[in-house]
Every structure is written in structure tokens, then in C-alpha cells.
Amino acid sequence: MMWGRIYALIVKEMWAILRDPRARVILVVPPLVQLFVLGFATTLEVKNIDVGVYNRDSGAWSTEFVQRLSGSPNIRGLVWIRSPKELRSAIDNQRVIVAVSIDQRFSADIEAGRPVTIQAIFDGRRSNAAQIVSGYIERIAGEMGASLAPATASRRSQSVLTNWFNPNLDYLWFTMPALIVIISTVSGLGITALSVARERELGTFDQLMVSPLRVHEILIGKMVPPFLVGLFNASLYLILIPFAFGVPLTGSITLFYLALTFYLLALVGVGMLVSSLAQTQQQAFLGVFLVTVPATLLSGYASPVDNMPGWLQILAQANPPKHFLIVSEGVFLKAMPALDVLSNTWPLVIIASVTLTASAILFRARME
Questions:
Q1: What is the pLDDT at residue 211?
Q2: What is the DSSP secondary structure assignment for residue 188, as one 8-state letter?
């Protein structure tokens, strides 16, 4: 009898979600749009930049360096600068992210075998991009220096760089597994948080209270549909990311779903806490926003958790996306072993247990 009542409530909740054609579209289309838009928009690469050139030398070697700059695939165009004042203005007005200043004796010093210096002035307001562009400029200057003195360069010790798990440093290989976590967080919390709030706003919550359903049966019936929707969206991403974006899936799908199950349960618990506190769907939406932003920032998606202050690193341990992000990237890129997956799954088990228990207590208290 109990499972029959729970099944009936689950069917009722699924119909409430899927009955409206617009709701069906909202459940599938926005997560797909977010996957594609965020996948290409949240790039860690710095491309299509404009570089200012203040060239006071008319020799062949300064021309050679400028041509190497313009030939870089990351540089969109060169902005010619004729004075120090114009150089300052170009950076102040963000026309360029870097201005390269070439001394008037640049070519003459190279011909005479003397050391030369190229000055690069960066826009420090865009610190991360400036550091990456600095690497571009240094590599171009280093390649030119090696071509000028091949004999010396051949005797110089060289470093061989190898990038494990992402050989070409393709940003999609990093962002796409992480987007499974971020988008699942947004959609999972949103659907769960609106469930009880929708009942209260529509006036059907009182009908649940006088029904033969017990509190734990209502909770299970409310939690299963968001869990199934989250499972469906994550499975869709699991298919699209390797085939549409070329990100390899090297690990165990079984281990991925194991961690995903407890991750979704943790999200459902947090969502039910928000839904139990909210009286209207608007309050539930604001509550989801209040939870989602810190959860995203503390997940390690935008910046590594290790770079955060110590007290924030401790707080991040209670954040479900932080643990599942490690699993998602590990399963996709480095065939994460079972023990490593489990070491990041047991915190999700604890978080899910705490949030589900707290939401059940709060839900029972609000019903009484």
C-alpha cells in the first residue's frame, strides 16, 4: 500500500512537470542551450587580441619581429603607435591589451651581436589575460632569438613539455566535464525547490496534508521526479560531450553514475530545504539563486579550491559540486580509479544524508 501511494504521488508530480508543453521545453532546451553557449563562451584561451606596436627602428630585424607578431594565430591585428603618449592612450582606452616598444637601435644591435631588449607594456586591469599574452610575446621573441643564433641555441639545454590528460591544452576538455556539474546543480535545485512552493501557491498543499499519505511518503514522492530529471539531463550530457565536443570519456560510466546518484540526492536535499522554507515560487527561485552562486564559486570551476583562503576551503568541503566536479573531470579525462572515485563519493553520501534528514525534519515541522 505504501509503495502504491508513493508511486501515485510520483506519477502526479511527473504529470505536473510534463503536462505543460512549455514546461517540457524548459526542462530540456535551456540545459542544452547552456551546455553549448557556456561551452564556447567560458573559454580559458586568449584569442583575437590587438597588440600595439611602437617601432622606432626601421631596420630589417624589427620588421621581422613585427611580422612574427602579426602572424600569430592569437593576434587579431596590430595597432601602430607613433609616440609614448599614444601608447598610454591605447592602453588606457583598452584598444590594446599590450603595447610592444622596439628601440631605435634594435636592428643595429642584432647586426653587431649585442644583446637586445623588447619592452612590452601590459594592461594590468586584465591580469589573467595579460599573463597569458605575456607568454605569447615571450615565445615569439624566444623563437626569433633561436633563429638568430642556431648554433648557440643547439648547445643550450632544452626542456620537453608533456601535458598529461589534455595533451593540446584544449579548454573544452576542461570546461565540458565541469559544465555537467554546474548545469545539473542549477536545474536540479530549481526543479526541487519549486515543488512544495508550487503546491502552496496553487492551494493544493492542504490536500496533501489531509490525504492518507504520510510525511516520508510525500517527501519521497516530491524528491524522485527532480532526481529523474537530473539523471536524464546528465545522461544526455554524457552522450553529447564526447560526440559533439570531442572530449574523451576514458573512465568508468558505472562509477560516474554511482557518484552522480549521491550528488543528485544531495542536491535534492538542499532543494527541499529551500522549498520547505519558501511560501511562494518567487521565494523559492530567490532561495535557489542564493544557494547556486556560492555553490558554483566554491566548486572549483571558476578558480581552484586550493587557491582559496583556508576557512573557505573548509567550507567548500560541505559543497556537493566541489566533490562531484573532481569525479566528473577525473572520469572523463584520466580514467579515475575506483578508489579515487569513492574517496570523492563518500562526502556526497554524508552531505546527502544530512540534507535529506534536515529537509525531512523541516518539512514535518512545517506541515504540523
A1: 67
A2: H
3-state secondary structure labels for all residues of 329-352: HHHHHCCCCHHHHHHHHHHHHHHH
For 91-113, the DSSP string reads HHTTS-SEEEEE-TTHHHHHHTT
DSSP state of 288: H
Q: Structural domain tally of the chain?
A: 2
* Short-list 236, 246, 231, 182, CA closest to 38: 182
Predicted confidence at residue 278, as pLDDT, reads 79
How far is residue 132's CA from residue 149's CA, in Å, rounded to a whole number?
26
Range of the domain at 245: 2-42+168-367
- Own/partner contacts of 77-81, CB < 8 Å, gap of 24 or more, are 77/50, 77/51, 78/50, 78/51, 78/52, 78/53, 79/50, 79/51, 79/52, 79/53, 80/52, 80/53, 80/55, 81/52, 81/53, 81/54
Burial of 92 (0-12, 13-18, 19+ CB in 10 A): exposed
Question: Which CATH number fits the domain that encloses residue 70?
Answer: 3.40.1710.10
What is the structure's pLDDT at 157? 47
Helix (H) or strand (E) holding 25: helix 21-41
Residues 112-141: b if buried by 16+ CB within 10 A, e if exposed = eeeebebebbbbeebeebbebbeebbeebb
- pTM exceeding the 0.85 threshold for the entire prediction: no
- Considering the domain architecture, whether residues 239 and 357 belong to the same structural domain is answered as yes
- Kind of pairing, strands 75-80 and 98-102? unpaired
Q: Please give the pLDDT value at position 155.
A: 46
Nine cell digits for residue 122: 601590459
Local mean pLDDT, 10-residue blocks, the chain (368 residues): 70 70 67 81 79 91 91 90 91 91 90 86 86 88 77 49 77 87 86 75 66 72 83 90 90 94 93 83 84 90 86 92 94 92 95 90 74
In the block, which residue shows the cell 612590452? 120
Residue 126 inside a domain? The answer is: yes
Contacts of 283 (CB under 8 A, 6+ apart): 197, 277
Is residue 345 assigned to a domain? yes
> What gap in Å lies between CA 28 and CA 17, rounded to an integer?
12
